[in-house]
Design a protein that fits this description.
With 613 residues, this protein is α/β, with parallel strands linked by helices. The chain contains 19 helices and 25 strands. It comes from Daucus carota subsp. sativus.
Length: 613
Amino acid sequence: MALGISSSSFSTHYMKNPLIFPKKTNNSDLNFMFSCSPAANNYSKLCKCTTTQQGGGGGGELFSVTSSNTSDVDYLGESTKGDLNLNMGINGQASLQGPIEEIARVEAVEAERLLRNLGIPDPLSTRYSPRGIFCSRTLNFRSISCIGYDMDYTLIHYNVMAWEGRAYDYCMENLKGMGYPVDGLAFDPDLVIRGLVIDKERGNLVKADRFGYVKRAMHGTQMLSTQAVSELYGRELVDLRKESRWEFLNTLFSVSEAVAYMQMVDRLDEGIMSPDLGPLDYKALYKAVGKALFRAHVEGRLKSEIMSKPELFVEPDPELPLALLDQKEAGKTLLLITNSDYHYTDKMMQHSFNRFLPNDMGWRDLFDMVIVSSRKPEFFQMSHPLYEVVTDEGLMRPCFKARQGGLYSGGSAQMVEKSLNIHGDEILYVGDHIYTDVSQSKVHLRWRTALICRELEEEYNALIHSRDQRTMLIELLNQKEVVGDLFNQLRLALQRRTTGRPAQTLAATHMEDKELTESIQRLLVVMQRLDAKIAPLLERDGEHFNRRWGYLSRAGLWDKSHLMRQIEKYADIYTSRVSNFLHYTPFMYFRSQEQTLAHDSYSFYHPVPESNQ
């Protein structure tokens, strides 16, 4: 957990303070000495104690750490592996007698005070921070033995305008060489956001809600009206299983391809494609754009340019290596599993990590195993030949068994589990790609998962900026609901009157015809004016994040986007960057929040009528 120290002085502070930065330990076991001296009455005595990974607590040791062999399952269904146990009584234990509710209340108040004094945010406050770690499924971080990391847009964050802009340039250059009209086009990163879906049959880009209903759509580079969206997609749902039609924008790497495709759709509609290209439809056009971008990556010019001047493309994060260092020194086995090749990986990691690590450490010192050219998602699905990288030039030789400390190419997740003797939910994998990193590692191996989504920070700030506008919009909608309910009741009363039946109530039955009709007329005018006010506000909702698509995680005012549904389904935790782990501890218990249901507000906040009790 961060100790209120600025990032510029963090490394120096770590090296000078042995209480925070213990000497490098043998990571094969977790026997280390630690000291603690919090400034609280209950913790005033300096305590020195030894922890061990053995299940027993013999030898007079104060604490023991629950091992895999002795672990159980707690009341939330999480493994107790890694939990700290007290082996003997403590001084002043009598003061802990009494109702635990009262004791816990006092201790919680004192803990909050100590956290404030140390400059450390408490776990609850971090939930309301753009750099919080958000929990979809409860995760006991202590029970995680191994953490695997993706590299691109996970450990290393690229400047989207720079990286994707150059990818776009190379893609357009290749398209031009293939005979496509690309003159006058420029990269526009605001045209798309992560989580949109390309409709390859219609040349559209759509935003769907959690159920798959399309809420917004764009043809080429032009947004479609609400009426047009309803006519096109009112009777069908986005189904990502139909890969021949739908393409989900899983990652920021999708931005350059989507921008290029939507711009080329405009050119196809303009009828200026060369006859030499043959018959073209939107699906064939998508294939051509994908081929041009693939060539840009395979030819290596893009990565060579980035490797020559990484400072132009990579956004440094001084806190990131220190977050991983905390995890490693807590006994976690750290893995790097990336689809990038060895030369590119080594160059990027050196640039992003080495200058921020203490004691002349290099990036390789952080990881117990490094796997490049992993070929995800197949890495999680099947076995591939394993090669060991044996020279700095990248020379490889066939290998049949991985070992800790090794550098490899290819292989499989099953091989990693076997070599480390760690399996399933003991492993947490952290990546930015919902399908390649998060979905497949969970579906095939039941690994725990964390998604990195940098845009969360911008969305959080946008939501704060638009708070007043959303509050006014919700107030207008509530007014419309109340007025509309009265309108509907009076309309029903009029309907019953025309058939000679009494209205719902005695008062409504005895209303004068004129009064009833005028009331309906007045309410109808009010609702029409409310609609005229609400419609543009709804249209602009989310414009502080993206003026075309609104918020990343929302589809409309109330509902979640299809992207958010994917995150909740496959990512146990999610956050904006890996360095956010520095603001927590390697022993954190991430607890998912209450999931509200449509009927919760009625059952929890409104009294139940006596007749229904």
